[in-house]
Amino acid sequence: MSEPKPASPAEPHKPANFLRAIIERDLEAGTHAQRPFGGSPGDADHHQAGAIDPARVRLRFPPEPNGYLHVGHAKSICLNFGLARDYGGVCHLRFDDTNPEKEEQEYVDAIEEMVRWLGWDWDAYGTSHKFYASNYFDFMYQAAERLIERGLAYVDEQSPEAMRANRGDFTTPGTDSPFRSRTPAENLARFREMRDGLHADGAMVLRARIDMASPNINLRDPALYRIRRATHHNTGDRWCIYPMYTYAHPIEDALERITHSICTLEFEDQRPFYDWLLERLAEPDTLADGRVLAPMLAHPLPKQYEFGRLNLSYVITSKRKLKQLVDEQHVQGWDDPRMPTLAGMRRRGYTPAAIRKVADDSGASKSNIWLDYSVLDIALRADLEEQAARAMAVIDPVELKLTNWAEVFGSDSAREPCSAPAHPHRPELGVRQFSLGPSLWIERDDFAEVPAKGFFRLFPGNKVRLKYGVVIECTGCEKDGEGRITAVTATVIPDTKSGTPGADSVKVKGVITWVGAHDAIAAEIRLFDRLFTEAQPDAGGRDFLTVLNPDSKRIVQGYLEPSLAAVPADVRFQFERHGYFVTDRLDHQAGQPVINRISGLKDTWAR
Ligand code: ATP
Ligand code: MG
Q: Which atom of ligand 1 sits closest to the CA of residue 64?
């Protein structure tokens, strides 16, 4: 594991939040202290045969592998893995793969890669804590039979419409299904027929028998199993019945001996069912025929806690909608640098540390939060300011001709060597070398024929310094037939070279960046902007495709200083005056640079 390192006890800089308070209270009370752990997921017998769990707490990050992780998931990852680290526990990576239709191995692999990229690991105490909910299908099935035998579940053959109508609503209690009073034996037989493929998809479901009049609609006999003929990425065609999420998830937590099961707010109303189910499976019972049933699950049971989702402005955090952007080719894949997926953000150049910082600083609260997208850029700049090497690049180039070059330096083929530190505060990163010549590339907007008030860069008659080079005086420009400026002209002021005695004798108000036409490297530079024009693209049920930003990606041809000639892919820079950039991890090659802009130097989102 790279960073962050497991640490215990709590790191002092972490702000308090209600989840920390709960965990600290449980640790103090020893709620989980005497809990045996079987060394792997399992039922009551398995765990009770184990030693005391060396992990003081167990948490989990349980993604459904039906898409790529996004920035909202980063919140959940950093929260769960961070709490485990801070309190001497472990966080499981669990693929919640109980829904065969939408899940794919590609997503499993991508999720694993991105959790690691964010800096987390699930190996602890000599084992990998990477689990698949689908490996618990046998247990889930047995548990369902147990509920049936105890009269706590029944097979319902009502049509989906009738089932919906009979559920009632907030003001009306539900109506019992005509199938609700079947005997356990009848239900068991039917359920086995479901399992054995004797009934069509959707013909019937297994439901818990709880209370059709409960004020909590989630307790009005929720569905536990459905029939669905679909090939599962892990279990293939072994099953044609699949557990419902609300049934599967508590069982997954209990088999893995999770102590604190943290989920987002929308699951709050599911918590009573979560507890009901686990308590039923953890209690002994005696059947009417005298058979004694031992508990299937071990106490103490996991507890569910809910926190608010993280949302970013100008971003969509729904895998379904992100998938739509990919499938309909509004973006070029899940890792398009404009996507709020972790794969996209990595390619864009965001650092794991910046993403973790945003996640950590947003804390954990009982309401959903919206953060402005700029928080990410602020965190990125804070992270890269001290790390990223500097370089000069020209993004919107126009030629600068130094018309007295031969006079000053002897000939047009003469070069004037220049150097600059790779980083202003980190001499150990070394020095960059480049040179001046008679023809340079500068930014088009560093020249104005008629300067606006406060413009101190190139305009006829004005002097500026070429950064790390000499002072020049602008003499004018050249234009093509359409009046477009093709070159800016200037003369060199002798004896003004940066770092030489007397260099400062000529005072200038402007300093501009440049690269030499003779040694610059041509580069494809990809400039990204927000993907949507509205801060909450899908708010109020709006079709988010109607607010796609048509200018979210612009590709320009620029020039880089020669020190970047051999730079590998996935390296971040600060281009002086421009902001932070990264060599594209897929398309960049030394000699044929492809560079993504990560973020400007200042906040351009709040414009
Ligand atoms: P989506 O709607 O994008 O599919 P999800 O919640 O269904 O999101 P899961 O794969 O089930 O996706 O999520 C894994 C975990 O990440 C869950 O515990 C979920 O609550 C959490 N999570 C997802 N989105 C956010 C978010 N925006 N903020 C915080 N946690 C989130
Ligand atoms: Mg989900």
A: 10
Pocket of ligand 1 (CB under 6 A): 62-64, 72-73, 75-76, 263-264, 309-310, 317-319
Q: Is the pLDDT of residue 10 over 50?
A: no
Compute the distance between CA of residue 57 and CA of residue 33 in angstroms, rounded to an integer.
9
**Global pTM?**
0.93
Which residue has the CA at smallest separation from atom 25 of ligand 1? 72
* CA 418 and chain centroid, separation: 41
Q: What is the pLDDT of residue 605?
A: 42
pLDDT confidence of residue 1: 38
Q: Specify the pLDDT at position 79.
A: 97
Confidence of residue 4 (pLDDT cuts 50, 70, 90): very low
User: Of the bound ligands, which one is closest to the alpha carbon of residue 267?
Assistant: 1
Q: In angstroms, what is the span from residue 66 Cα to ligand 2's centroid?
A: 9
The residue whose C-alpha atom lies closest to atom 26 belonging to ligand 1 is 72
- Ligand 1 centre from 73 Cα, in Å? 5
What strand order describes the sheet that includes 223-227? 153-156, 205-208, 223-227, 241-243
Question: Checking DSSP bridges between strand 521-528 and strand 553-560, what pairing results, if any?
Answer: antiparallel
Over the stretch 470-515, which tens digit does the pLDDT of each residue have? Answer: 999 999 999 999 999 999 999 999 999 998 988 888 999 999 999 9
pLDDT digits 0-9 by tens, 422-458: 999 999 999 999 999 999 999 999 999 999 999 999 9
How far apart are alpha carbons 223 and 157 in whole angstroms?
A: 12
Catalytic residues: 64, 309, 319
Report the alpha-carbon distance of residue 184 to residue 305 in Å, rounded: 34
State the Cα–Cα distance between residues 509 and 507, nearest whole angstrom. Answer: 7
* Residue ranges with strand state E in 136-259: 153-156, 205-208, 223-227, 241-243
* DSSP, residue by residue, 482-502: TS-EEEEEEEEPTT--TTSTT
Question: Tens of pLDDT along 242-296?
Answer: 999 999 999 999 999 999 999 999 999 999 999 999 999 999 999 999 999 999 9
Q: Report percent pLDDT > 70 for the chain.
A: 97
Please tell me the number of the ligand nearest to residue 107's CA. Answer: 1
* Residue of 68, 69, 73, 317 with the most ligand 1 atoms within 8 Å of its CB, for mutation: 73
Judged by its nearest atom, the ligand closest to the C-alpha of residue 72 is 1
Kindly report the backbone phi and psi dihedral angles of residue 461, in degrees, each rounded to the nearest multiple of 5, phi listed first: 95, -10
Backbone conformation region of residue 86, classed left if phi is above 0, alpha if psi is from -120 to 50, else beta:
alpha
CA–CA separation, 284 and 411 (whole Å)? 96
Q: Quick check: 463 pLDDT over 80?
A: yes
What is the CA(321)–ligand 2 centre distance, in A?
13
Closest CA to 350 of 380, 371, 378: 380
What is the DSSP track for 524-573? EEEEE--SBSSSSTTGGG--GGGGB-TTSEEEEEEEE-GGGTT--SS-EE
Residue pointed to by tokens 């309909």: 328
pLDDT of residue 504: 86
**Of 141, 156, 220, 221, nearest in space to 187 by CA:** 156
- Rounded to the nearest angstrom, the distance between the alpha carbon of 309 and the centre of ligand 2 is 12
Please give the domain boundaries of the chain with CATH numbers for all domains.
Answer: 144-242 (3.90.800.10), 390-518 (2.40.240.10), 522-599 (2.40.240.10)
Q: What is the pLDDT of residues 502-553, one digit of tens each?
A: 888 899 999 999 999 999 999 999 999 999 999 999 988 899 999 999 999 9
